[in-house]
Design brief:
The protein has 86 residues and is of the alpha/beta class. It has helices at 10-22, 33-42, 59-68, and strands at residues 2-6, 26-30, 47-51, 75-78.
Length: 86
């Protein structure tokens, strides 16, 4: 299984990527939305782990962009936001 992790916090991305690879998954890390779009064009992913708060485009908009391009792989949103409104 190949996973794309989209996370702008370098330390968190490194920790998550290590935990994922320890489970014998292949993981690529994108630190912003533009990098994620480039990865998506180049590689077929089985899953995207997508941070909601990214520096250039937020994760919700990026998810909508993926779906508008016809991408159907599962997307798990990850966030530190913790209110009901979020």
């Amino acid at each position: 299984m190949r996973i794309l992790l989209v996370e702008d916090d370098f330390n968190l991305a490194e920790t998550l990527a290590e935990a994922i690879t320890d489970q014998r998954y292949v993981v690529d890390v994108a630190n912003d939305g533009e990098s994620a779009l480039a990865y998506i064009v180049a590689v077929d992913y089985d899953l995207i782990l997508l941070d909601v708060m990214l520096p250039d485009i937020n994760g919700i908009d990026l998810c909508q962009k993926f779906r508008s391009q016809g991408l159907q792989m599962p997307i798990l949103m990850i966030t530190a936001l913790d209110t009901i409104g979020d």
